[in-house]
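Review form for a predicted model. The reviewer records the input and the model, then writes brief findings.
Reviewer: anonymous (R2)
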Amino acid sequence: MIIVSACLAGYRCRYDGKTVPNEAIVALVKRGEAIPACPEMLGGLPCPRIPSERTADGTKVLAKDGRDVTEAFQRGAEETLRLARLYGCGHAILKARSPSCGYGKIYDGSFSGILREGSGVTAELLLENGITVEVKD
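Model under review:
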C-alpha cells in the first residue's frame, strides 16, 4: 500500500483550493492500491488557506501573513504517519516543493519562489520512520 498526497489524487485540498491530479496516482487510488491524505488538512488547516513555507532553518512553518502554523503542520505529519502505519504503507508519493510533502527541494521561506535543499514536515517524519518518499508535480 502507498500513501499519496490527496491533491495528486484529485482532491481539492491545496492551499488555493485547487487540485493537481496525477492520472497515475488517481488510478492507484481507484484500484485501492493507495491511500490519499492531505497533511495540512489533517493538521486542522482550512481549504483554501494562506500559503505557508518552511523557514530557512527548518524550525518553523510560517503563513505568508506571518502566523506560525508549525503546530498544525506537525500534527498533520503525525496523522499522516498514523494512517501510513494503519494501512501498512512502506512508500509515499507526495507533492513536490510543498512545506508538508516536498522532498529534496522546498521553497526557502521568503515567498519569492526560490527553492532550497530540504524537505517538508511530513516527508521528513515519514522518512525518519522508514517510509520511502518520492515526489511528483
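Findings: The chain has a mean pLDDT of 97.
Further findings: Helices lie at 23-30, 39-42, 70-86, 121-128.
Recommendation: see findings above.
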